[in-house]
Amino acid sequence: MQPLALYVHWPFCLAKCPYCDFNSHVRNRVDAAAWEAALLADLAHEAALLPGRRLTSIFFGGGTPSLMPPALVARLIDRAGELWPFADDIEITLEANPSSVEAANFAALASAGINRVSLGLQALEDAPLRFLGRLHDATEGLAALDVAQRNFARVSFDLIYARPDHTPESWEAELARALALGTGHLSLYQLTIEPGTRFATLVREGKISPLNDDAAADLFALTRERTAAAGLPAYEISNHARVGEQSRHNLTYWRYQDYAGIGPGAHGRRLNRATVRHRKPENYLKAIAAQGHGLSEERPLPLPEQAAEAVLMGLRLGEGIAPAQLAARFGLAETDLIVPDKRRFYTAQGLLCDSGEHLIVTEAGMPLLDALLAELVPAGLVEP
User: Fold this and answer.
1) What was the pLDDT predicted at 61?
2) DSSP SS3 for 12
3) Is the pTM of this model over 0.90?
4) Secondary structure percentages of the chain, helix, strand, coil, to 5
5) Beta strand 185-190 pairing with 154-161
6) Which residues are registered as beta bridge partners of 4?
7) In sequence order, which residues have a C-beta less than 8 Å from that of residue 169 and are 6 or more positions away?
8) Is 54 in contact with 2 (CB distance < 8 Å)?
9) Is there a contact between 362 and 352 (Cβ–Cβ < 8 Å)?
10) What is the pLDDT of residues 177-186, one digit of tens each?
């Protein structure tokens, strides 16, 4: 049975964070019964196309999935188990906000089948939390983390660094506190100003100034050094874990394996096809009623496009890629995947480690990853 991952998107939030460009929506009322019916219908649609697969992970993302009624979470997990056989060690993750209201649901969510939680702390001090538009304060966040660690087998949390005026001294102190909290996984993201967000408007109006690139690069290097020394090295450009604590679900994406995505705005990659669901919750529900699924787009992925995506995703990983294996998988030559002279040049520069079998971006190369990828992947592979 070929492995499969399942992503479930819950689009609702209590407020829209100023840095967030995810598909999230604030609604005064959410009809849980209507959403249960819709998500179950969408799930059945995907299962009919993917019979006989072994489900290795489920990931509830958002939005704020910790706002979901635990009974709905349990129903979706149970139904997924009826539609596909579960791997013995299936990983079932739910993203959660660290409010006291949501933390009160953690025990019920664990009983529903969640065995891993990803907590959006984002910062450990009140001032940056206010800047980031978070609804919790530092004390509430740490209390929610404590509740999570008592209820779930595996816990991860997120922090956002490289904020305006962020200094190495303050980040090093915050990172040391984070590493002392005892989780096996940390997601540490540099603040990026995404188009269409409130922060993008504030930058345009001159009300906030992003940290400059050199200062951000220093914080990136500090992050990798400190996490590695603490036994949570980077296994992906922004994700750090003890051995065995890596997010198996996210590794499915980065290793370019099949995953089904349901819920508003969810993306999927399965059966050599790309899928996208309707983003707006109301449009998604209308699509379910009209056609029995929430798809707004489904298209075949040409092999060169799949190959380009696999390279672009795989080089984010500490393990890198095996170019010969990818070339065989997509019926291409290695030189079609990676520009040969760029591969040699950046290896000589120490930005790549090339054993012949594996190609890995080095510590020196990771801060330049986007620029490297733009040169390593042939333009014809990416562009139709």
Assistant:
1) 97
2) strand
3) yes
4) 45, 20, 35
5) parallel
6) 55
7) none
8) yes
9) yes
10) 999 999 999 9
86's tokens: 């579960």
pLDDT at residue 383 is higher than 60: no
What is the structure's pLDDT at 379?
A: 82
Q: Which of 25, 39, 12, 84 is nearest to 293 (CA)?
A: 39
Nearest to 265 by CA among 79, 8, 29, 47: 8
Cα distance between residue 92 and residue 110, in whole Å: 10
Picking from 14-28, 77-91, 142-156, which range would have the lowest pLDDT averaged per residue?
A: 14-28
Q: How many CB atoms lie within 10 A of CB 135?
A: 14
Strands 352-354 and 259-262: what pairing? unpaired
Q: Largest Cα–Cα distance of the chain, in whole Å?
A: 59
What's the gap between Cα 370 and its chain centre? 17
CB-based contact 355:344 (threshold 8 Å): no
pLDDT tens digits along 245-277: 999 999 999 999 999 999 999 999 999 999 999
**137, exposed or middle or buried, with CB in 10 Å at 0-12, 13-18, 19+?**
middle
Alpha-carbon dihedral of residues 168, 174, 179, 185, nearest 10 degrees? Answer: -90
pLDDT band at 308 (very low <50, low <70, confident <90, very high): very high
